[in-house]
From TrEMBL:
Subunit structure: Homodimer.
Lineage: Bacteria, Bacillati, Bacillota, Tissierellia, Tissierellales
Record protein name field: Pyrimidine-nucleoside phosphorylase
Organism this protein belongs to: Anaerosalibacter massiliensis
Cofactor: K(+)
Keyword Magnesium: no
One function term, GO molecular function aspect: metal ion binding
Length: 441
């Protein structure tokens, strides 16, 4: 078999066989096929696309390029959640304790965040001594004892995806549904959860900017998960504005804690209930979402979800006083207000641009080597459709570099658009995708 023939076949719009896909993935992972040939194939895939069978075979080949994580030693139906990324997306930190408090094992291995703010692991490291690097034995033991564990994935999960993504990034071949779907799902499926819910973001702060593309991506990923024998569903959710109010690592931990205490932002809490109720059905803890929602609400009212977060922190060697008193979380030297200079309604606030502002403050990573400022970020005081008077505080900027804080203040004045009231109410969830149907709300 020759790489030349595989490139030519895809260039001419033909379907690649399972054996051809395995050949190119193994050869590239083992450094036997050069970058220039794989780049050529990626461009052919970009223009001629892959069908569902090819995409599933590509995902399987990437999974088989490295280690897989067997979770069979963990009791019960294990659930996981993946978000395609957004601004202020601290969902796992509140959702996981809520689901675990209902008696369903929520076990998640994550990578580091690269972008506007840190990933789930970076946020958790705002808690003093919280340990995200766990041995396989620790991960299994903690999951069995408290139904929840959140840790970093092993370095050798899907090495083919790491190499391919780096090459796609510099060859303008990132924006292809099959390549995106196989990249995301190979990492999820390498870890042996029984059921997966996918939170596919759409809007200004998401990778997918329009609804049609977001639905296509969701459908492709659900098809892959189902084809791999996993219970998989997806929700397409709004990322035209940040989720909740807080953007930044320590600030988002504080907001997640407040949510578990019944004091969180309405949109963030509602999304946790939406996702969580579906996970409880997938885990067969309940037969319907209404009852699942009531179970989750009960974990907030009784304090069980909050106690579950405390357990998680304790079992992963963190200082629980940082949860009991969130004022202990990392604090920025400067906190500046952004005030409205006119009256009206919040028409829009471009989530991507707000994310870039958080990055300027140090809340995220430009490169994998960048050091995150766990105290930096932005806390919004208003959301889209809120009424605003002149002089009202729109947001608070948290940072340790006065010049950058002032720079962000000027930017936010232009990003947060105050004007006439929007004619249509905003949506939190646009639709649900299962292997049977796509339902728009």
């Amino acid at each position: 078999m020759r790489m030349y023939d595989i490139i030519k076949k895809k260039r001419d719009g033909e379907e690649l066989t399972k054996e051809e896909i395995n050949f190119f993935i193994k050869g590239y992972t083992d450094n036997k096929i050069p970058d220039y040939q794989v780049a050529s194939l990626l461009m052919a895939i970009y223009f001629n696309k892959m069908n569902k069978r090819e995409t599933l075979n590509l995902t399987k080949a990437m999974i088989n390029s490295g280690e897989t994580v067997d979770l069979s030693q963990i009791s019960g139906t294990k659930v996981d959640k993946h978000s395609t990324g957004g601004v202020g997306d601290k969902t796992t930190i509140a959702l996981a304790p809520m689901v675990a408090a209902c008696g369903v094992p929520f076990v998640k291995m994550s990578g580091r965040g690269l972008g506007h703010t840190g990933g789930t692991l970076d946020k958790l490291e705002s808690i003093k001594d919280f340990k995200v690097e766990l041995s396989r034995e620790e991960f299994v033991r903690i999951s069995n004892e408290i139904n929840i564990a959140l840790c970093s994935q092993t370095a050798n999960i899907t090495p083919a995806d790491k190499k391919l993504y780096s090459l796609r990034d510099v060859t303008a071949t990132v924006e292809n549904i099959s390549l995106i779907a196989s990249s995301i799902m190979s990492k999820k499926l390498a870890i042996g959860s029984d059921a997966i819910i996918l939170d596919v973001k759409v809007g200004s702060g998401a990778f997918m900017k329009n609804l049609d593309n977001a639905i296509s991506l969701a459908e492709e990923m659900v098809e892959i998960g189902t084809g791999f024998g996993r219970e998989t569903i997806a929700l397409v959710t709004n990322m035209d504005e940040p989720l909740g109010y807080a953007i930044g690592n320590g600030l988002e931990i504080k907001e997640a804690v407040e949510t578990l205490q019944g004091k969180g932002p309405k949109d963030f809490y509602e999304l946790c209930l939406f996702l969580g109720s579906k996970l409880l059905v997938l885990a067969k803890k309940t037969s319907n979402e209404k009852e699942g929602r009531e179970m989750l609400v009960n974990t907030i009212k009784t304090g069980k979800a909050y106690k579950k977060l405390l357990e998680l922190v304790k079992y992963q060697y963190g200082d629980t006083s940082y949860i009991e008193d969130t004022e202990l979380l990392p604090k920025a030297k400067y906190v500046l207000k952004v005030e409205s200079d006119k009256e009206g309604y919040i028409k829009s606030m471009n989530a991507e641009e707000i994310g870039k502002c958080a990055l300027i403050l140090g809340a995220g990573r430009d490169t994998k080597e960048s050091e995150i400022d766990l105290s930096a970020g932005i806390v919004l005081n208003k959301k889209v459709d809120d009424k605003v008077k002149k002089g009202d505080v729109l947001a608070y900027i948290h940072g340790n570099n006065r010049g950058k804080v002032e720079e962000v203040k000027e930017k936010l004045k232009n990003i947060i658009d105050v004007g006439n009231k929007n004619k249509e109410n905003k949506k939190l969830v646009y639709g649900e995708i299962t292997n049977k149907k796509t339902k728009l709300f």
